[in-house]
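Sequence only, no structure available. Ideas?
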Amino acid sequence: MVSPLIVLALISNLQACTPSPTLLPNMPAAYRATTTTMVYRHAPARSRILVKREPEKVIVTVVSNQKYDPSRNTAHLQVFRNLVDASTKYMNIVYDKNRVKDQIINSDGKFGVRYTLNGFDCGRVTKFLEDTVNSAIFITSVKIKCGNRPETVLK
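Reply:
I predicted one. Tokens follow.
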């Protein structure tokens, strides 16, 4: 026979344990760190924690290893657009392309693109860029500026 004191001690230990977070199944790696919903095991579905992030203007400057050549710039820009499209599709990210403006730039003789993203979450954009540019060997430099904060160099 089990002592009532032992049963009470076990119950109090179980109640003192904090629930451990678990990620939603099949969530792409790029989205895991930036999701605003955390679901706890052993807790009802309505016990989710939501963190609201304010959308802001994000400026991203991406520079390639290709020479800046006005006759080739359109082709280089299409490569960048294809990279973004492929990455967003792979990461299952849907966004409004009308809120993204791209502009070809000459960065010390190299081809680059300056993206202006209106109403985006800087943390999510940063995570997306980290995952995307590491797989593109032709990208030599990535800088991101979020709102009024200083510019950050990612690569």
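The chain has a mean pLDDT of 76.
Hope that gets you unstuck.
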